[in-house]
Each structure stands twice: as structure tokens, then as C-alpha cells.
Amino acid sequence: MSLRRAGGPDLAVTLAVTALVLGPLLVGGGYWLVGDMVFVPHQPWKSAWLGLDGSLPRAVPMDALVSLATHVVPGSVVQRLLLVGGFLAGGLGIARVVAEQRWYARAAAITLFCWNPWVLERLLIGQWAILLGYLLLPWVALAALRLRADRQAWAPAAVVLVLSAVCSPSSGVMAVGVLAVLALGRDRRTWAWVGLLALAANLCWAVPALTASTVRVSTDGVFAGFAARAESAAGTAASVFSLGGIWKTSIVPEERTSAVLVLLSCLLSVVACVGLARGGTDRRRWAVLGAAAVVLALLPALPGGSGLLEGLAGHVPGLALLRDSHRFLAPLGLVLAVGSAHAVSAVRARIRPGTGALWSAVVLLVVAPLLLLPSLAWGALGDLPRSSYPTAWEDVADLVGSDDTTVVLPWEGSYRGYSWNHRRAVLDPAPRLLPGTVLVDDRVLLADRVVPAEDPRVVAVALALADPDPAGALRAQGVRWVLVERGMGEPEVPAGRVAYDGGGLMLVDLAAGGPVADIAGDDDRSRHVLVSIGLTSAILLLLAGAAWILRSGSNGHHSHESHGV
User: Fold this and answer.
1) Quick one: pLDDT at residue 244?
2) Residue 523 needs a FRET pair 20 to 30 A away by CA distance; which of 9, 40, 303, 306 works?
3) At what angle do helices 137-149 and 169-183 cross, to 10 degrees?
């Protein structure tokens, strides 16, 4: 069966899944604003988007790309393009991984990969960039299988590693892990290729992280705070094995609180594992990949696991990347999707005259992910309504200068519940919408603990707000503006001239009460050079890989069947 003929059903199933998940966002205006998913109409350019300001690069360089894109089209369009493009890439990618299977087997892989608790929970927590990284994993797998078959075929791996690293640091790390497990063997030159590609691709965020100077990352209690949780009486292990178990229990859908449905989801995972064991030629590699994902996700939840990680993180700060270890469960979705396709093919092979009833089992395996998780349909069954920014936000943005520093009140964490956003908790959009430096309380307020602020500037502002003369103390810190977001408590507002008051926002100009100190920003030339080198390396790797693919025409003539899955 040619890939061209196979592409029709794959595209149809992927489009159907994408429409079912994202439909409400696509049929009207506005934004999905929830958790960390913050898009704004126009995101002004800042050095922080590239990690040049010394801050921790949580969204570097994705924020830079989004900022550039909003200079061309509104942020609402950017959000739709990214989410739709991600689901299309994920569905069509997993279909390519199991391209030798019949269309209904590929359909089972598509539904399980794109429609599972991990996808829903990351969507509800707003981690759209990490979700995009997950949806790129099939292409990482394809690149890995090709590189193992031909060590000269480095270009696809280069391209997909850079794209994954752009999504988020954890996505870049996961992509490297998938590539290593599926591609590496006894050939030392392949090891060298993978190491070189992994390093160059991830320099875009690794260099800003290593050269960051204005942050202090706390690991005290965070591994336990972000550990996987049991969603039902079936337990934590059952939740994780069925691709659920996120730490934020408030967003867990109702059906995942049923032990029966969780165990049925585990049964689907078992069927996928059996299918992979019986039909996959690379089953040992897939098994290692899936097992590693489960272990990483469960480790902080195991007795002594969080304490072990905290102790190690005291000596290896980079382990803080694992604090939300549940996100590293993502490769299990890839493994189970491949296994599901093989399971469907195995059932189909048993169909003989008089056993046509087995077709119902084939259909059930294809639609089981949807039946077990109806909450993912139609914007989480309406739990993701569209919202639009009041005009006051753009009015305030017009008053703030690109060299100004703004403090946002209330000073009670960085998540807000605006009335115009249906009171859903969302990361404060002010840092992305206002020009200049915008400081919010970046403490993470969990149910049983508070993760301390990471930015020393935030600590300095907290002390200034507690000063007998907060306006003067803030001016001494170089702060000119105080933005008060109404409707979430009654914070004490420092004295100053009210420059704007309306639409739920009040902007206070502290400069009216005295001179604002000229605090020089972090302008470390050596950091700028190193960050520029890292970004340039990633860009050159991406361009070189894309040019090699286009020149060779390998993206259109690649025969996946020669790799075996």
C-alpha cells in the first residue's frame, strides 16, 4: 500500500479527532485562556524571549517565535494554528510510524495517541507547548528508525530535535530520550551523531539556563508537590499506566475518578502492550521506552522517591527539570499507540468466515479511547470556553514604555481568575501583553505548600510592598508603574497618580511622587555572546537538516517499511 493512498484515511481520522477536540475554539473568535496557556493579541518583543536578560528560560525560544508571529497575525490566530498544526502533526506522524498496517489499525493508533488522559490533562493545565512536543514524538521515532538504518540520514533527526527543543526544555529532553532508545546500537558513530545532534538542538534553551543569573530554583518539597496522584480508588500506578495521574487533581475529569473506567483504560493499555509484544519487530526498544516513561512519572510518588530526588537536586540543579515528572509519561502514549495498531492487526488476522463478530473488537479498539474519555470532546465538554480581552488591556499597554518596569497586584501568586475569563485560573497575561519589564509574584501556590519565588527581583518587590513607604521603596527598585487587576481581593495600592482606571484595571504612575531610580538591566555581554552562539547553532542545524531533506527528496520517497516497527 503506497503512502499516498494510505494518507487519505489517516488525514480523515486526524481531522475528525482535531475537530472533536478543538471545535469550540475553531468556530468563533477569542482565546482559550487556561493555566499556562496565555496568548495575547500582540506580544511585544523583549530580550527575555531569547533568554538574554538572565531569567530562567521556561519558554525560550518559543516566546520569541510567538512574539514575532503576533507581529504578523493576531495572537488568536497564532493559538489556533499551533494547536491545529500540533494535532495534525501528531495524528499523521503516528500513522507514518505504523504505515505498514491497514488503515483501521492506523486509525486505532491515531485515536489512542491523540485522545488520552495525558493530552486532556496537559490541555486543561494549559501546557500547550509541552503538548506540541508530545505531538512531535512520532516524527522523532521515525527519524530514529531511519538513523538506525542509515547513520548518514541525520537530517530528519536534526530537524525534529530542534523543533522539539523549541517547544520546551522538557520536550527537547524527551525527544533526545526517544531518539536514543530507538536509534542507538553498537555503532559508535551513531552514538556520536546522536550526541552531537542532541547537544546542538538543545543549545537554544540550555545556554540561557546555564548562564541565568537572576534566578534561584528551589527544590524543597517540589518533587512531592508535583508527584503523580491517584485519580481513583484504583491507585496511582493504575492512573499512570492508563496515561493519567496528573498532580493537579482539580482538573481531573469526572470519568477518571471512577476506578472501573480507570481499570478499563488500563485494560486498553494491556491490550496495546500485548499487541506490541506479538507484532512489533522492535518490541524490546519500545518496551524500554515505555517502561522508562512510567518509572520517571512514578518515581516521586514512590516511598522515598521525592526525598531522593530532592537530595540529588541539591548537587545537580538540572534535576529541577524533573519536578513535574508526570509530563515525562508522554513517550508511553507513543508506545501504546504503536501497540494498539498491532493489536488491531492481530485481531483482524483472526477473522475467518463465521467469525465476523471479531470486527466489533476491531471497531472497539479504534473508538475505545473516545468512549473511555468523553471529557476531551468539544473543548473538554465546554470546560474551555472562549474569552476575549477587554479593551482596557490594550489601553494600558499603550501607556507603558518599553524601558519601564511594572509591578502587578494583587501580589498573591501569578495565576488569576478574571471575570471576563469565566473565573478560570490562568497565568497573568500582563508580562506578555505589556512592554518593558513586568514583575508578578512568581511563587507557586499549591494546596499544601508554596514553592518560593525564583527571581530575586520578585523578592525585592515583595520587601518593597511591605515597606512603610511602598511607593518610595518601589521607585528605589526602578519600578514606575503599578498595575492593579481588580476583582481578586483588595490589595493595598502604593500612592501615585492614577493614569488609567477602567475595564477591571487601574494603572498607577509612581513617578508622580518622585524620581524613579535608573536600575541598569542585566547586560552581561558574555551571556549575550553565548546565548547567540547557542541560538545560531540550533538555527543552522535546523536549516541544514531541512536543506538536506529537500535536496535529497527523502521526505517524499522514504520507505518506512524498510525500518520495521
Assistant:
1) 98
2) 40
3) 30
| C-beta neighbour count of 84 within 10 angstroms | 17
Q: Hey, what's the cell of 119?
A: 493530552
DSSP letter, residue 73 = S
Buried b (16+ CB within 10 A) or exposed e, 328-351: bbbbbbbbbbbbbbbbbbebbeee
Q: What is the spatial distance between Cα 218 and Cα 313, in angstroms, rounded to a whole number?
A: 9
Cβ partners under 8 Å of residue 520, min gap 6 = none
| Rounded alpha-carbon distances, angstroms, from residue 519 to 43, 365, 457, 461 | 24, 61, 11, 13
HEC string of 512-553? Answer: HHCCCCCCCCCCCHHHHHHHHHHHHHHHHHHHHHHHHHHHHC
C-alpha cell at 547: 536543506
User: CA end-to-end span of the chain, whole Å?
Assistant: 16
Which pairing describes strands 405-409 and 437-439: parallel, antiparallel, or unpaired? Answer: parallel
User: What is the C-alpha to C-alpha distance for residues 247 and 94, in angstroms, rounded to an integer?
Assistant: 27
Cell numbers given for 389: 480581552
Rounded Cα gap, residues 308 and 313, in angstroms:
9
Q: CB-hemisphere CA count at 13 Å for 286?
A: 30
pLDDT (tens digit, 9 = 90+) per residue, 134-157? 999 999 999 999 999 998 999 999
> Residue 449 has what pLDDT?
79
Grid cell at residue 164 = 522539539
Cell 483472526 found at: 350
Which residues does the chain have with pLDDT short of 70?
A: 1-6, 214-218, 280, 317-318, 321, 520-523, 554-565
At 318 the pLDDT is: 67
Please report the pLDDT score of residue 522 as a whole number. Answer: 64
Q: Residue 141 and residue 143: Cα distance in Å, rounded?
A: 5
Rounded Cα gap, residues 189 and 291, in angstroms:
26
H or E segment and range at residue 229? none
CA 271 – CA 153 distance, rounded (Å): 34
Q: CA torsion sign, 369 to 373 to 375 to 376?
A: negative
The C-alpha cell at 89 is 502533526
| pTM tops 0.90, yes or no | yes
Tally of CB atoms within 10 A around 483: 21
CB contact at 8 A, 94 and 109: yes
Closest CA to 126 of 334, 394, 414: 414
Q: How far is 360 from 553, CA to CA, in rounded Å?
A: 41
Which string of DSSP letters, residue by residue, matches 405-460? EEEEES-S-SEE--GGGTT--EE-SHHHHSSSEEE----EE-SS-EEPPS-HHHHH
The cell numbers describing 315, all together, are 548537587
